[in-house]
Structure formats: C-alpha cells, structure tokens
C-alpha cells in the first residue's frame, strides 16, 4: 500500500470510523485487487462493448475486513473519466457521511460498508460492476451523475430490487419514476428548476433583457437554460441574442459577440451562462474582451473558482451553487462537512455539489430507521414522504411523482475575481 493510501485510511478511521471496500478473493482463495484498471481496446469510443469485449470495471480496494452484519453500499462512479469532476467529490462526501452514521451506531444497529467501482463513464463497465455488486449483496447502489452512463447499472439494480441513489443527477429522466424507475432517486436540484430559479433572480435583480449563452454539449447546462427561457419569457423577459456554443466552436464566440454588439443598440441587463467550466471560461474571456460589461449570471455547472485563473477578468458575476466552498457558507453543517472533506482528501472541495453525496447516505439511513426495514418498497415509501426534510445540506422534498429533490441553493458573487457567499435563494412556489 502506498504511503498516501495508508495515510488516507488512517485519517479516515480517525475522523469518521468508516468501513470501506475490501479486496476481492479469487477462486483459489488468494486476494486480488479487483478488475484491471487499464482501458481496453475492445471498447468503442462511446464506452459500449465491442464484439469480443470483456467488461472491466475498476474495483477500488482498501484493506478493511467486512463485519458479518454489515450493510453493503455499492458505488459505481467515474473516478478517472469525463464525469470525475462531479462524481468523485460526491463519493468522498458520501464516504464521510458513512463514517458519521457508523460512529452513531450504524443503520438498524448495523455498520455500513462502501464498495466502489470506477466506471470510467463506460457503459459496459457500469453494467458489469452492477452485476458484481448485486452478487456481493448490496442494499443500496450509488451511481454517477449522468443518466446515460448510469442506466446500465440502474437496469441491473432495478431487476434485483435494489434502491438506487444519484448524488447529483439533475436532468429530467432522474425525476420521473416511469422512466428511471420507482427505485431511483436523485439529490440534485432539477436542472430546469435551477434555470427557473435563475430567471426569478434575473427578473428581480437585473432586468428583463438578457443575452443567453448555452453549452449544448453539457446536458445539465442545456436543461438549465431551457428552464430559464421558459420562466423568463412567461414573465415578460426578452432576449438580445441566444447563442449556442460547444468546446469545438467556442473560439468563434468572440466574432459572434462582436457582431451582436454591432447590430444591436441595447445593452443586455445580464448575460445568462449555462455551461461547463471548460466552455464557460472561454465565454467569460471573450465576453469581456468584446467590451460587454453586463453582469454574468451562471448556473451551478460553472460553480467553483478553478477556472477563474484562465480568464483575464470576470467582471461582475453571480453563480448558483449547492453550497459555498469559501469558508463562509451560513450553514455550520456544511462548513463542518467541508472541513472533514479537506481532512480526508487534503484539499477543499472545488465546488459545492459534493454536499449531495452526504445527503444520499443521510437519507438512506433516515428512511431505513423510520421504516425499521431495508425492504425496497418500505424505503421508497419513506423517501416519497420527505417534505422539506432536513438533511446535511438543507431540506429535501420528494413525492410519488418526482424523485428529483427540490432544495434551497446559494448565490455566489464574484467581485474582482474573488468569489464569496452572497445569499440563499429558493424557488418561488
């Protein structure tokens, strides 16, 4: 074991007392670290299996023995692929919450054990990992934040009657039981509802005329602007340009903006930005270079400050977030969670979304204790009764028709390239 892994295990035991994934035993009784981590040439570029492929999820071992009465929590998330930015921090927060639950006596008097696989955002790896975890007797499955990559694991878990929780899947599929399954819940704010929240803020604080720029390659970002547009237009808002960009054509944005400025006589009250940081940072750069000084209001896909060093200046900017990572969040439970996160990982979280990882475990533990059972139907019934239910990161609401959470959000204000908590915002009824 490397010194870094050993230190992580020691710190985690001291801080949380959590149990974790153990090494698998081979047929001959020897231990093996799990599946190979190398990407296979047998995979197509989209992650689907080739004709001779053997799915190879990456098991993440830690050398801790499993108590006989343990409740096994499976996790199939992306630790090395395109969803790593969202998946891995949420998993770390779930890890912390598992330790807290165990320190308080576990769930129904039984300890939780986390067994995790790196799906690398490959569909067949997700499918194979789910089959392995079902064989190992999991009672709960945590999955990636992207529905397309989670679906193979969801299908396996649904067939086996296992509860599936996503920390941060925000697109509409997650919230509809008839699509994702009655056993599937997500703890993200619905992306379209987040867009509605942005529209309410812009209309109240900025004005009725905006330029909207959307990253069409990011499903959450696209859904944010979809929700924004619907709410904004319905309440009298209008657009001075609606631009669609991708990572491939973002370099053309500078000329697009220059053309827009030349052909219009009115300056927008705000620029609404729905984008990933990879695209959004270039949008901010070109907006300011083009001389557009209107405030920028961005969705939570732009949360965090790592991209700020890549722009010349942000100007006035507000970003929606799940929690402030700058040490100034008004909720002490969130500040405590992020302090534990830094102790565990050696760094503060890069953006606020990891809080949803802690909420998944807190919700599972609460539902099981209230039901007095791990029966799937009992767990679903309890989760569907969550009505402004306080969890680690605030209140959560589910019902039988929507399995996507409704929650309060934070508004982060960036002034002189320095982000800080500005206010809590909640959707209007």
Class of secondary structure makeup? alpha/beta
Number of helices: 12
Helix content: 25-40%
Biggest sheet, strands in spatial order? 10-9-11-12-13-17-18
Beta-strand share of residues: 15-25%
Known CATH architecture of the largest domain: 3-Layer(aba) Sandwich
- The total tally of domains equals 2
N/C terminus separation: 53 Å
Key attributes of the depicted protein:
429 residues, alpha/beta, Rossmann fold, 2 domains, six-stranded mixed β-sheet, 12 helices, 18 strands, 21% strand, disordered N terminus
Please give a structural write-up.
This protein has 12 helices and 18 strands. With 429 residues, it is of the alpha/beta class. It folds into 2 domains: 3-189 and 334-407, Rossmann fold, CATH 3.40.50.2300; 191-321, Response regulator (Rossmann fold). The strands form 4 sheets. A 7-stranded mixed β-sheet has the order 10-9-11-12-13-17-18, with helices on both faces. Strands 3-5-4-6-7-8 form a 6-stranded mixed β-sheet, with helices on both faces. Strands 14-15-16 form a 3-stranded antiparallel β-sheet. Strand 17 and strand 18 (418-425) form a beta hairpin. Helix 3 (123-135) runs parallel beside helix 4 (147-160) and helix 11 packs across helix 12 (376-383). It is elongated and about 70 Å long. The relative contact order is 0.12.
